[in-house]
Protein backbone atom coordinates (compact mmCIF):
# COMPACT_ATOMS: atom_id res chain seq x y z
CA UNK A 1 0.00 0.00 0.00
CA UNK A 2 2.94 2.35 0.51
CA UNK A 3 4.52 4.03 -2.54
CA UNK A 4 7.68 2.35 -3.78
CA UNK A 5 10.70 4.57 -3.61
CA UNK A 6 11.84 6.10 -6.88
CA UNK A 7 8.79 4.77 -8.72
CA UNK A 8 7.08 6.67 -11.50
CA UNK A 9 3.52 7.38 -12.64
CA UNK A 10 4.07 5.53 -15.92
CA UNK A 11 5.79 8.43 -17.74
CA UNK A 12 9.35 8.37 -19.12
CA UNK A 13 10.88 11.35 -20.86
CA UNK A 14 7.52 12.93 -21.52
CA UNK A 15 6.01 9.75 -22.95
CA UNK A 16 3.30 7.92 -21.00
CA UNK A 17 3.69 4.15 -21.17
CA UNK A 18 0.94 3.30 -18.65
CA UNK A 19 -1.34 5.10 -16.18
CA UNK A 20 -1.15 4.81 -12.40
CA UNK A 21 -1.13 7.10 -9.33
CA UNK A 22 2.11 9.05 -8.82
CA UNK A 23 4.82 7.06 -7.04
CA UNK A 24 3.10 3.68 -7.46
CA UNK A 25 4.51 2.36 -10.76
CA UNK A 26 7.87 1.08 -11.98
CA UNK A 27 9.37 -0.56 -15.05
CA UNK A 28 10.08 -4.29 -14.99
CA UNK A 29 10.90 -7.03 -17.51
CA UNK A 30 7.94 -8.50 -19.37
CA UNK A 31 8.92 -12.01 -18.26
CA UNK A 32 8.23 -11.06 -14.65
CA UNK A 33 4.55 -10.23 -15.33
CA UNK A 34 1.90 -12.74 -14.53
CA UNK A 35 0.17 -14.37 -17.45
CA UNK A 36 -3.32 -13.35 -16.35
CA UNK A 37 -2.63 -9.63 -16.08
CA UNK A 38 -4.90 -7.48 -18.23
CA UNK A 39 -1.96 -5.37 -19.29
CA UNK A 40 -0.12 -8.40 -20.83
CA UNK A 41 -0.59 -9.07 -24.49
CA UNK A 42 -1.00 -12.88 -24.84
CA UNK A 43 0.59 -12.77 -28.29
CA UNK A 44 3.90 -11.53 -26.88
CA UNK A 45 6.80 -13.85 -25.95
CA UNK A 46 8.86 -13.68 -22.80
CA UNK A 47 11.99 -11.57 -22.90
CA UNK A 48 15.36 -13.38 -22.68
CA UNK A 49 17.02 -13.50 -19.26
CA UNK A 50 19.96 -11.39 -20.39
CA UNK A 51 17.70 -8.40 -21.14
CA UNK A 52 19.83 -5.32 -20.51
CA UNK A 53 18.08 -2.42 -22.24
CA UNK A 54 15.02 -1.44 -24.23
CA UNK A 55 14.30 1.02 -26.96
CA UNK A 56 11.58 3.64 -26.73
CA UNK A 57 9.32 4.29 -29.76
CA UNK A 58 11.57 7.16 -30.83
CA UNK A 59 14.65 4.85 -30.89
CA UNK A 60 16.24 6.00 -27.62
CA UNK A 61 17.93 3.23 -25.65
CA UNK A 62 17.21 3.15 -21.92
CA UNK A 63 18.57 0.86 -19.16
CA UNK A 64 16.08 -0.71 -16.79
CA UNK A 65 16.72 -2.27 -13.41
CA UNK A 66 16.49 -6.03 -13.19
CA UNK A 67 14.67 -5.81 -9.87
CA UNK A 68 11.91 -8.40 -9.74
CA UNK A 69 8.37 -7.59 -8.55
CA UNK A 70 8.68 -9.80 -5.46
CA UNK A 71 12.21 -8.63 -4.63
CA UNK A 72 11.53 -4.91 -4.95
CA UNK A 73 10.63 -4.20 -1.33
CA UNK A 74 14.09 -5.44 -0.31
CA UNK A 75 15.85 -3.16 -2.78
CA UNK A 76 17.02 0.15 -1.30
CA UNK A 77 18.69 1.74 -4.36
CA UNK A 78 17.10 3.72 -7.20
CA UNK A 79 15.39 1.94 -10.04
CA UNK A 80 16.83 4.46 -12.45
CA UNK A 81 18.73 7.65 -12.22
CA UNK A 82 18.29 9.91 -15.19
CA UNK A 83 19.71 8.09 -18.26
CA UNK A 84 22.21 5.82 -16.43
CA UNK A 85 20.88 2.59 -14.93
CA UNK A 86 23.53 0.16 -13.77
CA UNK A 87 21.29 -2.85 -13.65
CA UNK A 88 19.61 -3.39 -16.99
CA UNK A 89 16.81 -5.68 -18.06
CA UNK A 90 17.26 -8.38 -20.74
CA UNK A 91 16.98 -6.99 -24.26
CA UNK A 92 13.73 -7.21 -26.14
CA UNK A 93 12.75 -6.27 -29.61
CA UNK A 94 11.33 -2.90 -30.55
CA UNK A 95 8.29 -4.63 -32.06
CA UNK A 96 7.40 -6.32 -28.77
CA UNK A 97 7.82 -3.01 -26.98
CA UNK A 98 5.53 -1.26 -29.43
CA UNK A 99 2.97 -4.08 -29.22
CA UNK A 100 2.92 -3.83 -25.43
CA UNK A 101 2.68 -0.07 -25.64
CA UNK A 102 -0.13 -0.35 -28.20
CA UNK A 103 -2.01 -2.78 -25.95
CA UNK A 104 -1.65 -0.44 -23.00
CA UNK A 105 -2.84 2.49 -25.06
CA UNK A 106 -5.76 0.46 -26.37
CA UNK A 107 -6.77 -0.52 -22.85
CA UNK A 108 -6.49 3.09 -21.71
CA UNK A 109 -8.44 4.24 -24.76
CA UNK A 110 -11.10 1.59 -24.12
CA UNK A 111 -11.35 2.67 -20.49
CA UNK A 112 -11.59 6.31 -21.55
CA UNK A 113 -14.18 5.39 -24.17
CA UNK A 114 -16.28 3.57 -21.56
CA UNK A 115 -16.07 6.55 -19.24
CA UNK A 116 -16.96 8.92 -22.06
CA UNK A 117 -19.88 6.72 -23.05
CA UNK A 118 -21.13 6.72 -19.45
CA UNK A 119 -20.72 10.47 -19.32
CA UNK A 120 -22.55 10.77 -22.64
CA UNK A 121 -25.39 8.60 -21.36
CA UNK A 122 -25.60 10.69 -18.21
CA UNK A 123 -25.55 13.88 -20.26
CA UNK A 124 -28.23 12.42 -22.54
CA UNK A 125 -30.40 11.67 -19.52
CA UNK A 126 -29.81 15.18 -18.22
CA UNK A 127 -30.60 16.57 -21.66
CA UNK A 128 -33.82 14.55 -21.84
CA UNK A 129 -34.82 15.71 -18.35
CA UNK A 130 -34.04 19.33 -19.23
CA UNK A 131 -35.99 18.98 -22.49
CA UNK A 132 -38.97 17.60 -20.58
CA UNK A 133 -38.72 20.38 -18.00
CA UNK A 134 -38.45 22.94 -20.80
CA UNK A 135 -41.56 21.56 -22.49
CA UNK A 136 -43.42 21.61 -19.17
CA UNK A 137 -42.30 25.19 -18.59
CA UNK A 138 -43.42 26.08 -22.12
CA UNK A 139 -46.84 24.59 -21.42
CA UNK A 140 -47.05 26.40 -18.08
CA UNK A 141 -46.01 29.63 -19.78
CA UNK A 142 -48.71 29.09 -22.43
CA UNK A 143 -51.37 28.54 -19.77
CA UNK A 144 -50.15 31.59 -17.86
CA UNK A 145 -50.35 33.71 -21.01
CA UNK A 146 -53.92 32.54 -21.62
CA UNK A 147 -54.79 33.20 -17.98
CA UNK A 148 -53.16 36.63 -18.21
CA UNK A 149 -55.15 37.48 -21.34
CA UNK A 150 -58.38 36.36 -19.68
CA UNK A 151 -57.47 38.33 -16.57
CA UNK A 152 -56.83 41.43 -18.65
CA UNK A 153 -60.15 41.00 -20.46
CA UNK A 154 -61.92 40.49 -17.13
CA UNK A 155 -60.16 43.54 -15.73
CA UNK A 156 -61.31 45.62 -18.70
CA UNK A 157 -64.86 44.36 -18.24
CA UNK A 158 -64.75 45.16 -14.54
CA UNK A 159 -63.45 48.63 -15.33
CA UNK A 160 -66.37 49.19 -17.69
CA UNK A 161 -68.78 47.92 -15.04
CA UNK A 162 -67.11 50.16 -12.48
CA UNK A 163 -67.46 53.17 -14.78
CA UNK A 164 -71.14 52.37 -15.29
CA UNK A 165 -71.57 51.97 -11.54
CA UNK A 166 -69.91 55.32 -10.92
CA UNK A 167 -72.15 56.93 -13.53
CA UNK A 168 -75.21 55.23 -12.02
CA UNK A 169 -74.20 56.35 -8.54
CA UNK A 170 -73.79 59.90 -9.81
CA UNK A 171 -77.21 59.80 -11.45
CA UNK A 172 -78.70 58.19 -8.34
CA UNK A 173 -77.18 60.87 -6.15
CA UNK A 174 -78.68 63.50 -8.44
CA UNK A 175 -82.08 61.77 -8.29
CA UNK A 176 -81.86 61.49 -4.52
CA UNK A 177 -81.08 65.18 -4.37
CA UNK A 178 -84.15 65.90 -6.49
CA UNK A 179 -86.26 63.63 -4.28
CA UNK A 180 -84.99 65.42 -1.20
CA UNK A 181 -85.94 68.75 -2.75
CA UNK A 182 -89.39 67.42 -3.68
CA UNK A 183 -89.88 66.04 -0.19
CA UNK A 184 -88.87 69.38 1.24
CA UNK A 185 -91.30 71.15 -1.09
CA UNK A 186 -94.02 68.65 -0.23
CA UNK A 187 -93.37 69.14 3.45
CA UNK A 188 -93.73 72.87 2.98
CA UNK A 189 -96.98 72.34 1.08
CA UNK A 190 -98.32 70.06 3.78
CA UNK A 191 -97.41 72.58 6.39
CA UNK A 192 -99.31 75.19 4.36
CA UNK A 193 -102.58 73.27 4.05
CA UNK A 194 -102.61 71.39 7.34
CA UNK A 195 -105.27 72.84 9.63
CA UNK A 196 -105.89 72.23 13.30
CA UNK A 197 -109.28 70.66 13.98
CA UNK A 198 -110.01 73.18 16.71
CA UNK A 199 -110.10 75.91 14.05
CA UNK A 200 -113.03 74.28 12.25
CA UNK A 201 -116.62 74.56 13.45
CA UNK A 202 -119.29 72.49 11.69
CA UNK A 203 -122.95 73.35 11.34
CA UNK A 204 -125.74 70.87 10.91
CA UNK A 205 -126.48 72.13 7.40
CA UNK A 206 -125.68 69.46 4.84
CA UNK A 207 -124.60 70.73 1.44
CA UNK A 208 -124.24 67.39 -0.31
CA UNK A 209 -123.43 63.69 0.00
CA UNK A 210 -121.34 61.28 -2.06
CA UNK A 211 -119.50 57.99 -2.05
CA UNK A 212 -116.55 59.43 -0.14
CA UNK A 213 -118.35 61.44 2.48
CA UNK A 214 -120.76 64.22 3.48
CA UNK A 215 -120.27 67.94 2.77
CA UNK A 216 -121.23 70.27 5.63
CA UNK A 217 -121.33 74.00 5.91
CA UNK A 218 -118.70 75.20 8.37
CA UNK A 219 -116.64 78.13 9.50
CA UNK A 220 -112.87 78.62 9.41
CA UNK A 221 -111.32 81.70 10.97
CA UNK A 222 -114.56 83.66 10.60
CA UNK A 223 -115.15 82.64 6.97
CA UNK A 224 -117.92 80.34 5.79
CA UNK A 225 -116.46 77.28 4.12
CA UNK A 226 -117.50 73.89 2.81
CA UNK A 227 -116.22 70.95 4.88
CA UNK A 228 -116.09 67.46 3.33
CA UNK A 229 -116.13 64.83 6.07
CA UNK A 230 -114.91 61.40 4.91
CA UNK A 231 -116.85 58.25 5.79
CA UNK A 232 -115.29 56.19 8.55
CA UNK A 233 -115.73 52.94 6.59
CA UNK A 234 -113.33 54.02 3.83
CA UNK A 235 -110.43 54.88 6.16
CA UNK A 236 -108.16 52.14 4.77
CA UNK A 237 -104.47 52.52 3.96
CA UNK A 238 -105.07 52.53 0.21
CA UNK A 239 -107.91 55.04 0.43
CA UNK A 240 -105.84 57.31 2.66
CA UNK A 241 -103.07 57.25 0.05
CA UNK A 242 -105.60 58.31 -2.61
CA UNK A 243 -106.86 61.04 -0.30
CA UNK A 244 -103.34 62.37 0.22
CA UNK A 245 -102.80 62.44 -3.54
CA UNK A 246 -106.06 64.33 -4.03
CA UNK A 247 -105.16 66.83 -1.32
CA UNK A 248 -101.67 67.37 -2.78
CA UNK A 249 -103.17 67.95 -6.23
CA UNK A 250 -105.85 70.35 -4.97
CA UNK A 251 -103.31 72.30 -2.91
CA UNK A 252 -101.37 73.17 -6.09
CA UNK A 253 -104.37 74.34 -8.14
CA UNK A 254 -105.14 78.05 -8.29
CA UNK A 255 -107.75 79.01 -10.90
CA UNK A 256 -110.98 81.04 -10.80
CA UNK A 257 -112.91 78.26 -12.53
CA UNK A 258 -111.83 75.60 -10.02
CA UNK A 259 -113.07 75.08 -6.49
CA UNK A 260 -110.53 76.73 -4.18
CA UNK A 261 -108.82 74.33 -1.78
CA UNK A 262 -108.19 75.88 1.65
CA UNK A 263 -106.79 73.04 3.79
CA UNK A 264 -107.35 69.68 5.43
CA UNK A 265 -107.49 68.04 8.83
CA UNK A 266 -105.75 64.64 8.96
CA UNK A 267 -105.84 63.52 12.57
CA UNK A 268 -105.52 59.84 13.32
CA UNK A 269 -108.26 59.92 15.95
CA UNK A 270 -110.98 61.65 13.88
CA UNK A 271 -112.36 61.46 10.38
CA UNK A 272 -110.38 63.37 7.73
CA UNK A 273 -111.78 66.79 6.76
CA UNK A 274 -111.23 68.68 3.50
CA UNK A 275 -111.98 72.42 3.59
CA UNK A 276 -112.85 74.35 0.40
CA UNK A 277 -114.52 77.63 -0.46
CA UNK A 278 -118.30 77.76 -0.17
CA UNK A 279 -120.17 78.30 -3.44
CA UNK A 280 -123.60 79.97 -3.60
CA UNK A 281 -125.04 77.23 -5.77
CA UNK A 282 -124.14 74.18 -7.87
CA UNK A 283 -125.07 72.61 -11.16
CA UNK A 284 -127.08 69.97 -9.35
CA UNK A 285 -129.14 72.59 -7.55
CA UNK A 286 -129.66 74.56 -10.75
CA UNK A 287 -130.79 71.36 -12.48
CA UNK A 288 -133.09 70.38 -9.63
CA UNK A 289 -134.62 73.87 -9.56
CA UNK A 290 -135.02 73.72 -13.33
CA UNK A 291 -133.02 76.89 -13.72
CA UNK A 292 -131.26 75.33 -16.71
CA UNK A 293 -133.81 74.30 -19.33
CA UNK A 294 -134.03 73.99 -23.08
CA UNK A 295 -135.56 77.39 -23.21
CA UNK A 296 -133.65 79.59 -25.67
CA UNK A 297 -133.24 82.17 -22.94
CA UNK A 298 -131.16 79.75 -20.85
CA UNK A 299 -128.82 78.89 -23.68
CA UNK A 300 -126.31 81.73 -22.99
CA UNK A 301 -126.09 80.67 -19.33
CA UNK A 302 -125.53 77.04 -20.27
CA UNK A 303 -122.84 77.96 -22.80
CA UNK A 304 -121.10 80.14 -20.20
CA UNK A 305 -121.08 77.29 -17.68
CA UNK A 306 -119.77 74.86 -20.30
CA UNK A 307 -116.99 77.27 -21.21
CA UNK A 308 -115.97 77.76 -17.57
CA UNK A 309 -115.86 73.99 -17.04
CA UNK A 310 -113.74 73.47 -20.16
CA UNK A 311 -111.28 76.19 -19.16
CA UNK A 312 -110.94 74.72 -15.67
CA UNK A 313 -110.40 71.20 -16.99
CA UNK A 314 -107.80 72.49 -19.45
CA UNK A 315 -105.86 74.11 -16.60
CA UNK A 316 -105.82 70.98 -14.43
CA UNK A 317 -103.33 68.77 -16.41
CA UNK A 318 -101.07 71.74 -17.16
CA UNK A 319 -100.50 72.46 -13.48
CA UNK A 320 -100.03 68.88 -12.19
From TrEMBL:
Residues 113-192 form a coiled coil. The keyword Kinase applies. The keyword Coiled coil applies. ATP binds at residue 228. Gene3D superfamilies: CAP Gly-rich-like domain, Phosphorylase Kinase, domain 1. GO terms for molecular function: ATP binding; protein kinase activity. Residues 201-320 form the Protein kinase domain. GO terms for biological process: necroptotic signaling pathway. It comes from the Eukaryota. Transmembrane segments: none annotated. PANTHER family: MIXED LINEAGE KINASE DOMAIN-LIKE PROTEIN (PTHR44329:SF298), SERINE/THREONINE-PROTEIN KINASE TNNI3K-RELATED (PTHR44329). This is Protein kinase domain-containing protein.
Amino acid sequence: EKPLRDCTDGTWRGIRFFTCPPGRGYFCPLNTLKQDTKYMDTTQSDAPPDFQSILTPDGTEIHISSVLEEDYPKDEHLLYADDNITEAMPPTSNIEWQEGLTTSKYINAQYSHDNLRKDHQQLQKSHDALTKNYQELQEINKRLRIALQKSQEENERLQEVNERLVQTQTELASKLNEVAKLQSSLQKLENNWKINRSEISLSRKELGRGGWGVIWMGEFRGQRVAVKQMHDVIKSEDNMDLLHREINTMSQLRHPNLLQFIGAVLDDDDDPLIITELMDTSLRKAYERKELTTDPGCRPVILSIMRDVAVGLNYTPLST
